[in-house]
């Protein structure tokens, strides 16, 4: 039916992680490109310069600086399984926010299913968790839109 959906599946009262399930009418190969090609990644997530797809490789997202944040997210690839799984450390500030983001991609009859999980928030970081939840919801929508535009 051509419908793509983004569902926030974060459990109520959950303080250390958030999760989203995204149903897409695009094959895993295409979604994987949006997760790993810097030019595409920069269009829906955050601006990134280069990305070496190997465990231990470090890279950084650079957003608009805001009060209290220089706009940099430091990342390090923890696990990578081409077209199936990508997990990296997502660190903001001097270990001020030290989390892990995991993308898991599964083929479905109509395209693919993408699971996005960010974990490692501390109990006193409810505000950060809330902000990240809002961010992923918005960015997932941009991902859906991007996938509809690229071939």
How many helical elements?
3
Return the average pLDDT rounded to an integer: 93
**Helix content percent band:** 25-40%
How many DSSP E strands?
A: 7
Q: Biggest sheet, strands in spatial order?
A: 1-2-7-6-5-4-3
Q: How would you portray this structure in words?
A:
- With 151 residues, the chain is of the alpha+beta class.
- The chain has helices at 28-36, 38-44, 126-149, and strands at 5-8, 17-24, 58-62, 72-81, 85-92, 97-108, 111-119.
- 26% of the residues lie in helices and 37% in strands.
- It has a 7-stranded antiparallel β-sheet with strand order 1-2-7-6-5-4-3, covered by helices on one side.
- Strand 6 and strand 7 (111-119) form a beta hairpin.
- Helix 1 crosses helix 2 (38-44).
- The longest helix is centred in the last third of the chain and has 24 residues, at 126-149.
List the helices and strands and how they pair.
Layout: E1 5-8, E2 17-24, H1 28-36, H2 38-44, E3 58-62, E4 72-81, E5 85-92, E6 97-108, E7 111-119, H3 126-149
Antiparallel strand pairs: 1-2, 2-7, 3-4, 4-5, 5-6, 6-7
Helix pairs in contact: 1-2
What is shown here, in short?
The protein is α+β, with helices and mostly antiparallel strands. 26% of the residues lie in helices and 37% in strands.
Write out key terms for the chains shown.
seven-stranded antiparallel sheet; 3 helices
């Amino acid at each position: 039916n051509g419908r793509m959906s983004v569902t926030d599946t974060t459990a109520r009262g959950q303080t250390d992680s958030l999760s989203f399930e995204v149903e897409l009418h695009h094959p895993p190969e295409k979604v994987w490109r949006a997760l790993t090609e810097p030019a595409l990644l920069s269009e829906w997530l955050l601006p990134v310069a280069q990305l070496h797809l190997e465990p231990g490789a470090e890279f950084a997202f650079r957003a608009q600086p805001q009060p209290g944040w220089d706009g940099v997210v430091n990342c390090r690839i923890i696990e990578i399984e081409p077209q199936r799984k990508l997990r990296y450390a997502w660190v903001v500030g001097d270990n001020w926010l030290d989390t892990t983001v995991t993308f898991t991609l599964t083929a479905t009859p109509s395209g693919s299913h993408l699971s996005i999980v960010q974990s490692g928030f501390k109990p006193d970081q409810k505000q950060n968790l809330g902000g990240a939840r809002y961010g992923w919801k918005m960015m997932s929508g941009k991902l859906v839109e991007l996938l509809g535009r690229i071939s």
